[in-house]
Amino acid sequence: MENRAFVSSGMLARFIYCFPRSFIGMRDYNAASVKPEFTAAYDRLIKDALAVKYNRKKGEPEIPLYFDNEARAEFAKYYNKSIEPSLLTDFADCPDWGGKFHGLILRLCGLLHCIKCIEGGAKPEDERVTLVTLMEAIDIAEYYKSQAIYAYTLNTAGVVSDTAEYVLNKLNTKKITRISSRELLRSCRRFKKVAELEEPMELLIDRGYAVAYEESGTLWYEVNPMI
Fold first, then answer.
1. Cα separation of 14 and 6, whole Å?
2. Could you report the per-residue pLDDT of 112-139, keeping only the tens digit for each?
3. CA distances from 155 to 3, 101, 206 (A)
4. Residues 35-81 pLDDT 10s
5. Closest C-alpha among 114, 151, 186, 156 to residue 14
6. Burial of 67 (0-12, 13-18, 19+ CB in 10 A)
């Protein structure tokens, strides 16, 4: 995520991020194996899905999928009320990913719809995507939304966390409670310009370690006494 080429090309916005819960320390040595009927059902489903994909003739146009009227109306309402406004709030740290969130929901809808049709012996293009399928896709997408926000937040912290910790240690070591930006620059010799302090100080301010204010044209920082 620190690679500018990856960021500017939009590549990072095309990943689905996931931080699954770890069960290390809670695993049971005698845990039951997956039941054979589940394995067989999964194997059959995957083969049936691949058969639908690869038995199509070369050059045959892509299969169009459509919402039914109820699902279409609900998706439009969800987009207007939940997706578009969140681009300025929830997705503030990952606007590129947020801009593709509605597309993720549509792709999940397509996958779920195709699987349901294959399981039921129907052609996906002969059935409309239902409201139930849409809501299932939204549930899954909302989970990945929270994971993406977390991933991008980690990136923001990762870029400046080392320098922010360096500044915080300087403030603590010298027992500083109030300091100007220029005095802070002199105390933190790692930095050459006041501008280089902006990102680490923004992180410390966001985390409640300090507040910033201007006085007589000078930028000042006041350190949280609770730290």
1. 11
2. 999 999 999 998 999 999 999 999 999 9
3. 11, 19, 15
4. 999 999 999 999 999 998 888 888 888 889 999 999 999 999 999 99
5. 151
6. buried
Tell me what percent of the chain is helix, strand and coil, each rounded to the nearest 5. Answer: 60, 5, 35
Which residues on neighbouring strands pair with residue 67, listed in sequence order? Answer: 129
Domain boundaries, the chain: 4-20+35-156, 174-223
CA distance linking residue 226 with residue 171, whole number of Å: 13
Is the pTM above the cut of 0.85? no
Q: In angstroms, rounded to a whole number, what is the distance separating the alpha carbons of residues 197 and 185? A: 8
User: Using CB atoms within 10 A of its CB, is residue 59 exposed (0-12), middle (13-18) or buried (19+)?
Assistant: exposed
First to last CA, the chain: 30
User: Which amino acid, one-letter code, is at 219?
Assistant: L
The values of phi and psi at residue 179, to 5°, are -155, 145
